[in-house]
């Protein structure tokens, strides 16, 4: 829980009172690997902060499993657009490893935000942070070569390479497994 508190302090700058209010509204849950947290076609009612473990957001395109996001410790995971828009999602969320998660339910957060301006502001800051991360990911996928994308992953999140199957990593990088193998063997 300490990492979650630190994350909120970094981004949201919450008072002790509001930290307590927020923590009273969330739930700590443990899941084994390959647990489906959200299924396609449904509105996402919960997002999760990962205390321990790793999870991913993915979808199917033409029968192919496409990893959209990989979230290790101290990151949020969920079908974010669906969570905020309240529209059904084409994405799924699953644990890759055993996970300890903090579950944030939409209706509980809405209740908090409707009565607490500081928490509402913190949520906006978190959303802005998430948008910034997505823009960086978009830029990486569209403006960097396959090798540059791999090198960036090695530099920023090298532990993922030991914890996530290579097929998921290749998909996350927007390349085939064969291309990933070639890049790794050039090192």
Mean pLDDT rating:
91
User: Helix segment count?
Assistant: 9
Order of helices and strands: HHEEEEEEHEEHHHHHH
How big is the Rg?
A: 17 Å
Broad CATH class: Mainly Beta
Record keyword descriptors for this entry.
187 residues; alpha+beta; Jelly Rolls; four-stranded antiparallel sheet; 51% helix
Quick rundown:
The chain is an alpha+beta fold and 187 residues long. Helix content is 51%, strand content 23%. A hairpin with a 2-residue loop joins strand 4 and strand 5.
Describe the structure.
By secondary structure, the protein is of the alpha+beta class. The chain has a single domain (2-143), classed as Sandwich (Jelly Rolls). Helices cover 51% and strands 23% of the residues. It contains nine helices and eight strands. The protein has helices at 2-11, 16-24, 80-85, 106-115, 117-143, 146-157, 160-163, 166-173, 177-186; strands spanning 27-31, 36-38, 46-52, 55-61, 64-71, 76-77, 92-95, 99-105. Strands 1-8-3-6 form a four-stranded antiparallel β-sheet. The protein has a four-stranded antiparallel β-sheet with strand order 2-7-4-5. A hairpin with a 2-residue loop joins strand 4 (55-61) and strand 5. The chain starts with a helix and ends with a helix.
């Amino acid at each position: 829980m300490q990492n979650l508190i630190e994350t909120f302090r970094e981004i949201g700058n919450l008072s002790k009172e509001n930290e307590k209010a927020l923590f009273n509204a969330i739930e700590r849950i443990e899941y084994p690997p390959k647990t489906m947290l959200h299924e396609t076609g449904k509105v996402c009612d919960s997002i999760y902060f990962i205390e321990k473990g790793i999870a991913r957001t993915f979808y199917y395109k033409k029968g192919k499993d496409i990893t959209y996001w990989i979230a290790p410790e101290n990151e949020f995971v969920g079908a974010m657009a669906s969570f905020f828009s309240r529209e059904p999602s084409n994405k799924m969320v699953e644990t890759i490893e055993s996970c300890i998660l903090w579950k944030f339910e939409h209706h509980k957060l809405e209740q908090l935000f409707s009565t607490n301006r500081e928490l509402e502001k913190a949520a906006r800051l978190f959303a802005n942070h998430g948008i910034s991360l997505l823009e960086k990911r978009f830029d990486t996928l569209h403006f960097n070569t396959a090798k540059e994308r791999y090198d960036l992953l090695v530099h920023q999140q090298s532990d993922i390479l030991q914890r996530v199957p290579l097929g998921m990593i290749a998909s996350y990088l927007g390349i085939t497994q064969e291309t990933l193998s070639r890049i790794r063997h050039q090192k």
